[in-house]
UniProtKB/TrEMBL annotation:
This is 5-hydroxytryptamine receptor 3A-like. Residues 40-232 form the Neurotransmitter-gated ion-channel ligand-binding domain. One of its GO terms (molecular function) is transmembrane signaling receptor activity. One of its GO terms (cellular component) is postsynaptic membrane.
Amino acid sequence: MVQMWTLRILLLLGGVVAERTCRFNDVVEHLQLKRNSDFFYMSRPVNDYRQPTLVTVEMSLYAILDVMEKEQRFLPYVWTVMKWKNDFIWWNKEDFCGISEVSVPIEVLWKPDISIEEMVEKDKAPHSPFLLIRSNGEVELQSDQVLVITCRMKVYKFPFDTQRCNLSFKSILHEVKDIQLVPKASSRKVTLKSKEVMMTEYEWLFEKITVKNFTTFENQDKVVYTVTMRRRSLLYVMNFLLPVLFFLCLDLASFLISHGAGEKLTFKVTVLLAVTVLQLILNEILPASSNRIPLIAIYCIGIFAMMLLSLLETIVVMYLMKKDLHPETPKEEKEEEEAGCVTEDTRDHNMFSHIFHRGHNHHSSTGETQSGLMDEMHFHQNTGYSTQLTLTDPCKDPDQGDNLKVILDELRRVEQGLRHLRNPDAAGCWTIFAKRLNKVFFTVYVAVVTAFLIYVYLEWVK
């Protein structure tokens, strides 16, 4: 900013008004910056080499551009101001119409080699080409920077996590006997100013900035600004946590589906695959270098494991109930088959004899032999099963042997249907055991799910 101060000295000498005009170049020429710029640029500007240069640092956070958990990086937009004393630059502002500060090119004067320790990429924002010098010898350097900062992300409580990233200002070469770094403002003032000028926060909510300075073991001064920010977790809750919880509720509701239907097994497999897809999405978000398994990963893996156990339990229960619906071949028939003595005609004949003899004995004891036999015939007609067999030699007609196997399987189902019609409430021992197992497993399953969800919730909120 060019400022022009005009000093008018009114001298009543023959009615002539004398005017004096001051320029910034007058100050520059007085300081001899043009002719002897090397003198000011080459070395630390102190009268005594034993005297350290005191550098004050001030930083304000203007925006949170991005936080990359996968790459462990933090992108802030900051404004920094550094001030120090140059013992060779001073002037009496009264001699120059009250000019108290002048801007000069940044290459003219010596600057402290202050850098940000965590910065991993060169700043791409254009820097100010000027320094501001004051009449008392103070030099000020202002710059806005888009930084790429390496930051150790703690994602254990993701997406309810709070991240803290450091910006450490220190000299590259000089020790504390040469350059002393001190913060200009307190933590509270820096936080208030940053909240006033904050432009954007991405998906984060800026909380505070803490400032501290200390001397490192390399005997160098360091000023550390710690940015604390909290993640806005609502989007993750709606798009990830609740869908997984809904899938778990669907798995619990699947216990109401009858085991006799194959849809129950298909339904559980579909829900399990849906949770697997969400886990793949989560893997793209979380960093692989985390020291602790994040709670959200424990949440997904735990629910996935419980749903997998529920699926295995359903398979076992359906297998046990099938054992009553499809009884095994009698032992004597197995022995005859192994010896090669049983033909399809013999097995069919034995099956028919078993069915009709059982129906005859049962109805003879109740006085309903004819009506029972008619019920069986009526059942065959309603179910579409035929009781007419053409007994031929399967060795002569292989197709006929295959047909007899199919008919034998159907007759076994007919036998089970007849048993169920006579006593609908009766169930086999395997079916009773399977139902008891399912009831016990459901009780334990609900208890374990409840305890697991409470544990995850308490870990997230503490």
